[in-house]
Each structure stands twice: as structure tokens, then as C-alpha cells.
Write a structure and sequence with these properties.
The structure is a homohexamer.
Chain A: E1 12-26, E2 34-42, E3 45-51, H1 56-61, E4 67-77, E5 80-90, H2 110-123, H3 127-139, H4 141-144, H5 160-178, H6 184-193, H7 198-201, E6 202-205, E7 208-212, H8 214-218, H9 220-236, H10 243-254, H11 270-294
Helix pairs in contact in A: 2-5, 2-6, 3-6, 3-9, 5-6, 5-11, 6-10, 6-11, 9-10, 10-11
GO molecular function, one term (chains A, B, C, D, E, F): hydrolase activity
InterPro entries (chains A, B, C, D, E, F): HD/PDEase_dom, HD_domain, NA-bd_OB-fold, YhaM_exoribonuc/phosphodiest
Keywords (chains A, B, C, D, E, F): Hydrolase
Chain lengths: ~325, ~325, ~325, ~325, ~325, ~325
């Protein structure tokens, strides 16, 4: 099987791919003919493709996010590579291919990420804080194994949210050693809870966000996460006005730092100040890493990155 | 008894007043002497006062927010009137004076305001919405009778919060008649709930806010109000993801309209759009009304008002 | 005749429509052929249409904003409905169709709106204010019966400007009853005059603004409206520095509230504060109403609305 | 007579000065005594002064903006010079002193400035433009001889407004020679008219603005100037919709460039673009010149200047 | 030879032109055919062109920024003129045509501009300032003869940077006569140096900027220009902390006035304040001039201009 | 000796202190008497003090930043402690007290900080980068041992700048282990160089900044640091356009991230993105740590902190 980032002009090839996008279009002929305008992808990248003269059956057979077997030829169109599809059929069980092999995902396996997060939760010394964190994580346990952290902004891939948490937990652990006034339990809990409602804010499949949910639009993940803490405290019989509940809610509510970035209050505990900056540091460095990883080594500049003041990143070499 | 807004230069007078502010200060003499630097107020206004040569007993007898009987003389100091206190003593039960007679308050009695609000709640047709509103109002029932709506911004007096609600309910009622797409139950509930946690966000006595509470600073009244709805739903057995709970929380969360004004989400239901604008309209008109009421008729311009783009209001006359 | 919002895929139909937009385009064939790229509309909505193989005569026969009779068939193109036109001819007098039946318009007839506005003017008690309002309205009397209030922002349809006035007058009347410090004559006059020069700022036909006029661009409707008051006062012999003239000009100049929204001064009279907020309230609620009305009942969310922080409106249902 | 910028510590002196500011204050003694807290000024600068033990007669004799004869001694108070007044009396006709000798004023005489402006008006070739300019200047002719251009921002002294005009006319004249697409009549007229209503916007005496007038606050000088053009056109029988009237009004309305700086429209004619930048260039350079002139030569840095991004100006020397 | 701004529909013509843009595209036919999508230009304007059925040889023969001889016919496509190319070949030495005759350029010849700038440098009285200026100009001497001042913003054509300098020097010279506190040497030097590194910040050919260089993106022309002064001082043995070096660097660093416009410090010397405003005045007036020059006389409004608050310029006529 | 943070009301005490601030003032008596208005400090805090009836000799004996021996009594004035000084004399060599014992300083000794920084420099593998860093550090070697990092914002004490560097180096080292795409040499160098010119931007003694230097105001530490790199490269014979020089300058120029925060370019290399966020993280956490350390344990809230959105920090306890 040929990986997408290894296809070259004029290659003829056969392989399995994911139909990341699919649209039925018409040629400009009179009368117009239908064809399938497709984006094929695997874990190494993606490439546009055309399947000309699509039949009525074809239009009902293929759908976005499905796996397919393709025979095609690579051509150059407007200075970019694209595939002319000669044959295409849906993958079937006998093919033995798995969706998750064809999508971009965090560099660490979901299982390992979840295992790390569960380990950190087990290490939280305060039992009430631990119970609240466990309750909230429990609400999205299944989704946490695969959700991205955002639609496009950063960590936008399979397992991205858990990966973001794990990296932040590492930085938080280091800072707690460097700055003794930080409460380790609170900071751990804040890192795990700060985006915990994102899997309910966004609708995602295989690490790709298709849209925001209605509660996501009407409440936002910050208020949702904060309300899960309220719910946890009530269900667990912890006083709503206890300092621990207050502290956890404040961490979640303030982690975007400013009102115009979505936080109704600004960080006012040591851990809340730390949380915001750990979040920013990890997200921005991940944007850099992802841009470098998806830009060919031969390119000195990555494309412009919205979250980095709309600048590209330069590979300094000597 | 002489009301403060009727005192004139050189008047000698006797009367009961509220010690709104009191600080022990020293004269610049060597050695310095102690005196009491005071603000006297009643329901018609306030005036600075000095009590020279305060004894040790005096310093322990008087405290802010206490009622006193004063014999004094009015003088002019730097073009403003101030009182030189000749005699002062605390009021006692036999004097028959009540604190609430000496403070600025809404033009409608607390009892009438609460009665109106309860009537509106009773008229909410949807039983679940009604129960949630009743639960949240129940958490601050006693305070709702006297809390101001803000520290200084608008409706900053005894009963101000309830008065703001009642006026907004009137406007909301009118608009529901004019615009049939508005859901009357939701809009009523939104008006009553939008600032419902303010009595826990601020510490106030007699309509005067002294400071923000710790939960007020760490969470803010918007998130607190929203979480009360969560709490109400859980206690009442209403599903947290039901459209009614979602709709009420959205009303509360979005009513400041923009992130920089404290709302984590923007209005996205018809009632939420209406709520924000009714709130703004009533608050701004009340600022105008209060500025006009507390500025002498003889002045063409009121002082500058922060909430009105820091402009004064002009009395146009012909 | 079939209304546009009732056409379904594969329908064959005959009907009268308005050519809202029309452009001659070429196919990509070599040599290219001309066809007409059209938007058909009636009072219920609009739909794209193509008339292939347009002759030279066709290209000279049809023009935007003309009424036509069409025989066509509905097809699906890129998941949206569009009309393939089989036959098309201009409407003629015998057809008995009127342009105004084919355009979107305010829910109240122009005649009724104008009648209401004239009634309010007649009720203005102050004769000088009344005369100035009458003079300014007189300058655009004919256009007031059909002009929209804006190009796209809100009330962008036939009679929209008069409709906006009438609704605002209702709210203003209610508020004058609720807040006795508001001068009813001034507020009425301010509502009628605040956008009175819009018909000279914009070039519109049938409620559709095609562009801004040169005076509209160089002066703007705020300054133009204010100068009409100057003109009225001079023509009517009212002193330019009288408080009434000053008050009316201030209402007009300040009604956008902030410099960045186009107002050179901020509201500094009670009526000016009220006017700005009534204007905002009515415009925003109308955006909600219009978005709901033009979005199919089956859609939970309306499209994004620029004037509402670029958010959609959600239909809460239970 | 000793000029204020030449007084040194311990000097005993006699001289005439202007009472720029005067307030009756009380000492902290018990009972307090009255004294006069004064700012003395002449054309070279100003200095605080105290007149202890003021009698009742004194308090009625002296008033701000009056000329006085003073015998005093210079002392140092908190590292700054101040005058202890030994004797003080009002100036009288026999003293032969003139107010205008004691105030800061433009470096060119009012008469010369007005003469230059009238000469430029006479040179305007277009008779209608000339007539409109003449009409508007006629409304403030007397005040133009002495008004400042602003309260504190720039050119805040006797004759400052006319001086600003003359300097701008020089720059405009140069640019018309350099850029032939500029209409010399329009640019001249725009420069003269852009701030022409300032003498009605502000209340000033001897080049010192005490406050803004009511029309100044409610309309602003930009709208007032624009409306004078309307008035001129009507009185002179020039069509209000003629391109000349439109062009002049646009120059005035747009000269602050942005809405947040007070202009309801942005510059859209060549002369309007030029006018805004000539105005900015002249105002900023004058702020520099005035700061350098009023800062002792021995100081390397002037005080901070609000209009120059709140920075000081540095005297670079080698 | 026919100039581009004189071509009319249906003209058949032969002439030399510059291939300003060239892209190989495919028709929508199946299989698609290659054609050349071209923009032809000369000094009077530009026009799109198509060369159908391009051969493999054609695709290797033509390239952007090359001169060609074309035989073509003018057609109308979507209401705009475009050329159908019948024959095309590259220009060759015997044709005697020069690239510089086909591009837009400053209204004064490069030679004259450079001569003027060199003359100004020779007139700088201070030898150290003169030497620094000469050193920096020496680094880009060849490029200064043809570089534009910007990619699209203003003076975006052959010789634009030098032309901008010369016009600014004229204004600076005038202001030094009007305002005697300005140091003529410093202001001249600041004008010449303020954009001196732009030829290294941008990659341009024939006055057309194709992209920013890597140092241009990583440092920006302001920091680069400032560092050239450092380099000059070291090479010339002038103390880095001397007031002249400090003054020149400050002029360069502050000339964009605000941080958000790219200046790390704000103007704090008289010449720096002047430099910023001369730069703004000249750039804005040039935008006006260029917009008027490239808009047909028959159009009342120019297209919108980003640097002028995104407004068009109106040709007032009477 | 009694430390300042242990003095209580009515304590009589004798001790050595630093005169952090000293001003000669006058009482309001007539005639006024001189007294010394003083701020005493030691390493644990500071307290206001008064020395009444100062003689002429006293006024010439004491000066700010001098050490003194004081006998005094603690009193309460306006609810705050202040010292009434009974006796005061300057410290003399025999007293054996050292200035550095009386000032606030970093929690790690200067010697240790400098030793750490030098160790990091020695570990830079790239010789050219190492040489440039060494050159720049060499320019401020003596000052680096004691300079603060800012006037008030953060690390505003003895050794604060070096302490900030060392903590950032620790974080940077951790991140290089976590994110392998970061170049360790560049990041180390960027951390050491990013504020390296601050000791020349500010005038400081004993960790207290009194003002900004003239080069500090005219160039700013960002441009100064960048130019030191230029200077280093020239002196060391390293090409100015080499990628290493470019990379180091970019790190320095971009580390404030945005133009409005003083950076003329935005971060565009991986290390530049990291540097900005490490700087922000360390500065903000240090503000928290310093606020907690200087607020009595008994206070739940610290004072408001400008750099933390003007919020206080809350001590959450349970």
C-alpha cells in the first residue's frame, strides 16, 4: 500500500484510504455530468481526487468518513498533485483495514494517554478533589480516548484533547517543583478539568470536528465544565460553597484569562494564573510542532498559522 | 427635624442622621489632636461634618452605619457646605427613629416590589420554569427585599435590584405583546434570574455595597446565577440537558452580550436578545433618572455619569 | 401561480416572478456560449435560475428588477434547488401583475404606516417641533412610503424604514408612560427624524438598496438629517440657537451613541439616551424576527446574523 | 517689574500680575482662618502664591482674571517656588497696564493673523466658496482675533486658533504647488472653516478656555461648523445640493479622520485627505514647539505631552 | 504599437507587452486541455489574455516578467475586455524593446531622483551624519534606483521608494523654514534613512514586489534600518552612544508612531514627530494621486483604497 | 534589632534602617515648620515615619538611600502603622551594617545566579552563539549581579533580572527535553539575551529603579539588545546576515509578541514562540509569588496587581 505523502506525479497505485470529504459535482458540459470531488487521506497526509462519470449507484455508495479501496493515477493540476481515480469500491470486513489507521492522531496511543491521566487522578491526595475530577472525567470517559482539543486551532486530531492534558500535566508537575506555593492537587485537577466538557461542546468523529453542539453554542465548554463540577459536588455530597469547589470552578472559569477570550472572570488564585499560562504555552508550541510536521522538510516556511498571530514558522538552518 | 437637602449656610439645627462614613483623623497640630471626619446622610442627601476634639470615649462610641442625634451649625468650606458638630450622641430605642428612614431607596416599597415579582412568578405558565425560578429566588428571598442592583453603576440603593426587575418585567410584558415570537415564560424567567445571584456576589447593608464577596470575585454573578439553575434542576428532578434548563442558563450567561462585558456566550435565542436590550435600556434610563433626581433643579447639567459614556445629562428647557 | 418557497425538486411550473439579479455569462465550452444567470424572486423568497443558449435578442430584452413570466423545471445542483428555465418573456400590462406583489415588504401596508406616522405628527403638542418634523418628513414623503431602513443590516425591505419608525414610536409611547421625565414631543420627534435622511443617503428601488448616493457617502445620513433641521428652522423662522432646535439636532446627531458607530456626540439628554436604546432594541429584535421568518421551520438554527455578533438564532422547543 | 520666569528664591519684589486662579481656603487651625490661594501669571509663566489672613473685604475685592499689584517674597515649598504675598491691590486705570500684556499668546499679533486670513479669503477665486467662507468667518469675526484653538491640547493661548489657521494655510499653499490635483480654493476654504465654530463651542477669555458651551457639548464644533455652511448657503441663495456646498461640508465633517476622533465620515476628496494631515502635522509640531518653549533650557526632557502619545520631547545636543 | 489603455472591443492588433502574470491552466473539457492564462501589461495599464491550446513548447517558452510580441483580438467577457491571443513569441534583442518601457514607474526618472537624493546628502552639514547616511545608502545604491516603497500600499512601482524620499525631502525642507526648532540635518537624514532597508525587506523586480525576504519577515525594515546605522557607526569609528547615532536610530525606530503600526518606540524628538507626519502626509496624498491617475476620468469615484480607511476618492466637479 | 514586619503599635524600638524615601515638608502651622517625611525599609518590608521639627542641619544630613540608626515609637495613623522618630543619625563604618542587608532581593544570592548563568553560557555548544552571548553579557556583567528586571512590574528587586533569567533557563531546559524540535542553544541564548540591555535602559541602585535612561526612552531595551548582537557579530567577525545572528536578533525583537507590547515583529521561529511564553509564564508566576510573600498571612487577598489584569490573588484554604 502506498502512503499519501509518498505518491509522485504519474504514479499508478492501488491502496486503501479514508474519504475525508466527498461532494457530488457537475461538469460544465451541456448537459452537465456528475462526478465525485473527493479528498483522500491516510495518517500521513491528504490529496484531492476526482472520480469522473459517477453513476447513480456510485452517488449512493460512497459517503464521507468511509474507507475505500482505490486504483488511481497521480496527475498534476495547477501545480499541485491530484488523483484521477480509475476504480473505487468501499472497504469490507475481509479487507482487514481499520479506520483508526487512516487518521491523524496524537503521537502517543489513546490507551497510554488515558492510562497516564488515570494515574494522575489516582495520585491526587485530596479525596474530595479526586472524587470531583473522577466524576467529571467519567461523564466523557469514552470520548476522552479519541476527541481532538479543537476544531482547527490546535491538537485538532484523534486523541488531541488527552494528549494536550498529558503534556500540560508534565509542565504543571515541573512547575510545582520549581514554585512551592502552587497546590499540586488543585493544579492537576485544573489541568484535567479545564477543557473537560469539550467532547460535549463539539461533535467529532475520528478526531475531526464537524460542528459545535447546541449546548456548546448556547453555553460554551467553560460554563459546561464549571457546571459539571457543581453537579459532581451535589451528587457526591460536597458543599457547593466549600473552598475546594470554589477553587475548581474558578480554575475552569478563568482559564481563558480575559473576557474577550471567553472567561467571565480573570485568574485570581496561584493555580489559576499557572493554568492559563501552561495552557497557552502548550497550545502554541503544539501549533508550531504540528505546522513543522505537516510542512515538507524542503519548505523553509510553514503556512500561516492563525493562532500564532497569522505568521508562518521559519526553519532556521546553518 | 431638618432634612439635609434643606440645610443652608449658617443654619443651626438639631436632628437625627445616619453616620454613612466615619474616620478618626488627626489635626496637623504638634502634637496632633484626634477628630471625627464624618459623612451624615438621610434619605434626601448627604453632607460632610467634623467633630473636633474627639475624646477616647467618642472614638469608641460611634461607628459607620449608626444613627445619631446631632446639634450642629452649617459652614462653608471650599465653596461647599459642611457641618461643624457641636453635640452628638447615638440614637436610642426611645428616639423612635428607624434606619430605613434615613437611606436612599427605590421609589416603590420593598413589599410592593416583592409582591409584584411573586405575582409574576405565579403567572409563569410552565411549571418547570416556574419551579426553577421559585427555587433560585428562594435562595435570596430575604436579601431581594433590600439589595441594590450594583455598587455604584445603577440602581445603587435600598431595593434597587427588585426595582430593576419590576421595571424590566413591565417592558418585557409590553414587548411580548408587540413581538409575538417571544416566549413570555422564558422572558419573565430570564428577567428575574439574570441578576439573581447579585445578593451573594456583593456584601451590602441598607442598600450600600461595601465590597464584593469572595465567590463574587472568583465566579461572578453570571456564573453563580447559572449554577443556581443547575442546582435547582437537580434538586427538582428536571433533566439538566432539557431545553428549558438550557434556555434559562443561556439567558443568564449571555445577558451582558459580549465577552468583554462578562458574558461567556452571546445571545442566541430571541428572548436572550430581548433580555440584553431590556436590561441596557432600563439601566441607562435609571441612570438618567437618578442623576436628574439628585442634581439640584437649578443646575442645567448633572455631574458626569460613568455608565453614560462619562457624559452629563442636560435639562433642556423652553 | 406557484410561490417560490413552495417549489420542490423536479416540479414543472409556470409563474410570474421578479428578475432580482441578471448577468450574461459564458459557458466554458470552446467557443463559449452565452447564457443568463438569474435570481428569481417573489414575496416569499428567491431561487437561482439558468436560461441556457440566450440569443442576442434575449440579452437585450431582460434586465434586473423587471417582471417576467417563466416556464421552468426545478433541479438540484450542489445540494441546492435551482430552476432550469424552458421559456421566459417579460410581463406586460395585460398580465395584470404588479411589481409590489413580488417583493419582500413590511408586514403592515405602506398606507397604514404613513397614516400612523402622520397621526403621531399631528399629536405633537409643540407647534415648532411639529412644524420642523413636518418639514423634514415633507422632503422625503414619497420615498418614506417604500424605502428600507438599511441595505442589509435590518428592516431591509419595502416600507422597512416607516415600519421601524412605527414600532419605535410604540415603544417610545410605552416608555413615556413608564418614565415621566421623558418629554413626549421630543422623543416622538427624535424617533421620526433620526433616520429621516436615509432615503437620500441610499439609492433604493422596491425596498432593495443598490448603492449609497454621493451625498450619502460624503456626509452620511446623520449629518444630513441634522442639516435638514437647520434648513427647516431657517425656512420656518425658528431661531437656530433655540433649545428646541438644539434638542432635535442633538437627538439626531447622538443616536448612534459612539463615535466609532458614526455619532459625533454622545447622548446627553434624557430623550437622546432613550432614543439610542429604543433604536437598538427595535433593530435587533427585528433582525431576530426576520431571521426566523426566512429560515424554514424545520431548521433549528437560523444562518449567522452580522448585526447579532455574527451568531445564529436557535429555536428552543419542548 | 520682575517677570515671573526670573523670580528666584528669597527675592523680594513688586510687580503687576494676572490672578489666573483664586480660591478662598481655610487653614487647619482651630478655628480655621481664611486665606487666598492664588496663581499669579504673566506672559512668561505662572507661580503659586498665598495671601494669609485675608479679610472679608479682601475676599470680595479680588477675582480670577483680574490684574493686581503685588509686593511679595519668594519662598521654597516642597521644592517648588511660591510667593508669600505681603501686600496686594487691584490694578487701576492710572497704572497703565493692559490685560493682554499678561497672557500667553501666539508669536504673531492678532491683527497680523486676521489680516493674513482676510487676504487669503480675498484670493479665493470662486465667488460662491469665497462668499460662504466670508459668511462663516463673519459669525465669529471678533472672537477669531483672540480665541485659542483648544482647551489644553494645542495652540491653547490668545490668538491660537487664528495662528493655527495661518500656519496651516502656509503648508496648504506649499502642497498645492507640489501636488497639482489639489483644488487651491477648496483647500484654503477647508483650512479656514474646519474649526470655525470653535469660538462657539468653547467659552474662553484671554486665550484661556474655562468650559465648553452647551451647544458645544450637544453638537460639537464639527457639526456646528458644517451647519454654518448650510446656513450660509441658504442665506446666500446657493443650492444646498451643489457640489461646492457638499465639498465644503465634507471637508469640515471629515477632518478628524475617524469616528472615534469625532468625524462622522472619513475623508473622500483629495482636499479632505490633505486637510486632515495638514491639521495633524501642524498641531503636533506646535505641541513640540510649545513644550520646548515652556521648558527651561537646562532641562533635557520636556514634561509628558498627552497629544504626543504621552511622551516627553528630548533636546538632542552635541 | 497599441497601448493597452487604448484597446477597444473587436480591435485586432500587434504589439509588444510584458507578461506580468502567467499560469498554465486546463479547460474543463474531458480530457482537459492546457492553455495559458495571462496578464499583459505596459506602462499605461494591464489586460487579461488567453492563449488557447498551448503546446508543451509554449509552456516552457514563456515565463512571468518576460517581454513578448503578441497578435491578438480584443473580446468582451463578463462585461470586461480581454485578449484572445492568436500568435505570441518572446521578444528578442533585435526588437529593440526595453523592459523599463513597459512598467509603471514614478513620474520622475530614476536618474533624476537619485541625483536629487545625492545632492541632499552632499548638503548635510554635519560630517558624521553625512557619512552615516552615505554608508547606509551605499548598501542599497543600485536597488534604490528602481525599488518601490511598498508591495501595494503606496508608491508601489518602479522608483517609488526614491520618489517618496524626494517628495518628503521637499516637504521637510519647507517645514524647516517654517519651524526653526527643527534640525535640518537630522530631518534630512531621517527622511533618507527611515525606509532605507526596504530593498532588503522585500524582493522586487521592475517595481513589483513578489514577496518579503526572510530577514524582512524576521526583523522588519525598521529594525534592519536601525541596525545599518549601528553598522555604519562602527565601521566609521563613530561612538555608538553618541547623540547623533542615538538621534538617527530614534528617527528610524519611531517613524511608524505606534507599536501596533510597528514602531517599538514613539517619537520623542522634534524631528521624529515631524518625520512621522511628513511620511503619513506624503503616503496618503500619493495614494490619492495614484488612485485618481489609474481611474478613468469618466468615473466619479475611484475604487476603495485600503490605506485611506477603505474609502474611495470622489472627483468633485462643477 | 527589630525587623520592620515585626513592629507593632506602641512598640518603642531602636534599629538600623534604610531611608528609602525622604522629603522635607512643612506643617500647616503659621508660620509652617519643617519636618522630614520618611519611608524606612529593611529586607522584610517598609513603614512610613515622621521626624518632627527638623533643624537646618538635619535637612542637610539625611538623604534617600542612606542607612540610619533610629529610635522611635510606633503609632497608628489612619488605621495604618507609622513611626514617630525620637532620634535619628546616619550609620557610620563602625556600625558594621551593610546596605545590601536592608534591601529586598532575589531569594538566591547574586553570586549563585551569575554562576549559574555563566555555567549555561559555557554549555552552549555552538561557538559563535556562545561568543555573541558572552560579548553581550560582558557589556553589563557588573550590573547583572544586582539589577532588577523592571521598575515595578515584576522581579523589581536586587538581583531580579538574573533571577528571572535563571528561572526561565530552568523552564527552557525542561521544555527542550519535552519538545525535541527546539534548538537548545538558541533557546538558552534567547533567554539570556532577551532583556540583556535592561541595565542600560533603566537607572537603578540597590534593585530600585529611579528612572529610565535617555537611550532607554529613545530606543527601548528590545532594540538596544538587538543592536548589541549586531555589535557583537561585527566585533567577532561573524557575518551579519548569517542565520545565527538573524535567529538571535529575531528572538530578542519578537519576545514581547505583539506590536502594542513593544515587539516590532511577531515570533516566527520555534524558539521565539517558546521564549515569549516562558517569559510570560515566569513573570506572571513571580508576580503571584511576590504578592503572596509581601502580604501578611492573615490577609486572604493580596492587593491588586497591575500585571495580573489588576486583580488580587486569593489564598484558598481548607
Amino acid at each position: 500500500m502506498t502512503q499519501i505523502n509518498q505518491l509522485r506525479n504519474q504514479d499508478e497505485f492501488v491502496g486503501f484510504y479514508l474519504l475525508k470529504e466527498l461532494e457530488v459535482k457537475q461538469t460544465n458540459a451541456n448537459p452537465p455530468k456528475d462526478y465525485l470531488d473527493i479528498v483522500l487521506c491516510d495518517a500521513t497526509g491528504e490529496m484531492p481526487a476526482k472520480f469522473w462519470d459517477a453513476s447513480s449507484t456510485d452517488k449512493e455508495t460512497f459517503f464521507p468518513m468511509g474507507l475505500v479501496k482505490v486504483r488511481g493515477i497521480v496527475q498534476t493540476y495547477r501545480e499541485k498533485l491530484q488523483v484521477k481515480i480509475m476504480q473505487i469500491r468501499p472497504a469490507n470486513p475481509e479487507d482487514g483495514v481499520r479506520l483508526t489507521d487512516f487518521i491523524r492522531s496524537a503521537p502517543i496511543s489513546s490507551e497510554a494517554l488515558i492510562h497516564t491521566i488515570q494515574g494522575v487522578i489516582n495520585d491526587i491526595a485530596d479525596e474530595e478533589i479526586q472524587a470531583i475530577v473522577r466524576y467529571c472525567v467519567g461523564k466523557v470517559e469514552e470520548k476522552l480516548a479519541h476527541y481532538p482539543a479543537a476544531k482547527t486551532h490546535h491538537h485538532a486530531y484523534f486523541g488531541g484533547l488527552a494528549y494536550h492534558m498529558v503534556r500540560m500535566l508534565e509542565i504543571g508537575d515541573f512547575l510545582c517543583g520549581q514554585r512551592l506555593f502552587l497546590n499540586r492537587d488543585l493544579l492537576k485537577a485544573g489541568i484535567i478539568l479545564h477543557d473537560i466538557a469539550k467532547p460535549e461542546e463539539m461533535v467529532a468523529e475520528l478526531g475531526i470536528v464537524s460542528e459545535y453542539s447546541t449546548p456548546g453554542k448556547l453555553l460554551g465548554h467553560i460554563s459546561m465544565s464549571s457546571q459539571w463540577i457543581t453537579e459532581a459536588a451535589i451528587r457526591l455530597g460536597i458543599a457547593l460553597d466549600s473552598p475546594k469547589v470554589l477553587g475548581l470552578q474558578h480554575l475552569v472559569l478563568s482559564h481563558h484569562n480575559l473576557g474577550e477570550w471567553g472567561s467571565p472572570v480573570q485568574p485570581q488564585t496561584p493555580e489559576a494564573v499557572a493554568l492559563h499560562h501552561i495552557d497557552a504555552l502548550d497550545a502554541k508550541l503544539q501549533m508550531v510542532e504540528d505546522a513543522l510536521a505537516t510542512t515538507p522538510e524542503s519548505e523553509a516556511w510553514t503556512p500561516l498559522i492563525r493562532g500564532l498571530e497569522n505568521k508562518g514558522i521559519y526553519r532556521l538552518k546553518w
